[in-house]
Amino acid sequence: MDIINYLNDHLDLTILAAIVIAFVLSLIPKIDYPIEKLTNFFMIISVIALISLTLLVSYDVIARKLFHGGSIALQELEWHLYDIVFLFAIAYTLSKDKHVRVDIFYDKFSFKLKKTINLITILFFVIPLSVLIIVEAIPFVQMSYAQHESSGDPGGLCCRWIIKSAMIWAFAVVYLQSIAELRKIYYQLKHHKGE
């Protein structure tokens, strides 16, 4: 608990240390391979959650419309699955370079300028945001766990800390994927011919 408080109190130093650590780790050859496997694993969880969500919503609609039934716990589970789908897919999106940006300008840039923009974005936006979310989410999850937080609705789900901890897992994988992306950018710039 003291470590988390220290990280929270010195957030600027924490983010700076995370950037330096990511940069140093990105210099390790082939570090991107195990990170990509972890990212793909989280994407598989995301896909399973999406399929489960689709089936659950279909069941919920049929139960409500045809049988005038339904469950608050199932509705809350839909939101939890929805969270997992998007949170666990963020790192995969980063790994495939499919994240949102202003493509009307970006597409016209040279290869080196694109890679430089990606490098700056990862170092000064993605990594700090990931670290910020992780550091701020840990006490949030700890408090939820300590209070045995559950749904306020009758028949709702318990153990809210489980879904809240998905933020930590998701952005930890985003941080790791950022290291892999730095490694890829370094390799691409090193071996690129022309432009």
Summary tags:
single chain, 195 residues, mainly alpha, globular
Question: What does this molecule look like?
Answer:
The chain is mainly α. The chain is built from 8 helices and no strands. The chain has helices at 2-9, 11-25, 32-67, 72-87, 90-95, 103-106, 111-146, 160-191. Helix 2 packs across helix 7, helix 3 runs antiparallel to helix 4 and helix 4 (72-87) packs parallel to helix 8 (160-191).
* Helix/sheet category: mainly alpha
Low-confidence stretches: none
Strand content: under 5%
Instruction: Tell me the distance between the termini.
Output: 50 Å
The 3D shape can be described as: globular
Taken in chain order, the helices and strands follow as HHHHHHHH
Radius of gyration: 20 Å
Q: Helical segment tally?
A: 8
Helical content band: over 70%
How is the main sheet built? none
> Averaging pLDDT over every residue, what do you get?
87
Total beta strands: 0
What can be said about this structure in brief?
This protein has helices spanning 2-9, 11-25, 32-67, 72-87, 90-95, 103-106, 111-146, 160-191. With 195 residues, the protein is mostly helical. The relative contact order is 0.17.
Topology of this structure?
Layout: H1 2-9, H2 11-25, H3 32-67, H4 72-87, H5 90-95, H6 103-106, H7 111-146, H8 160-191
Helix pairs in contact: 2-7, 3-4, 3-8, 4-8, 7-8
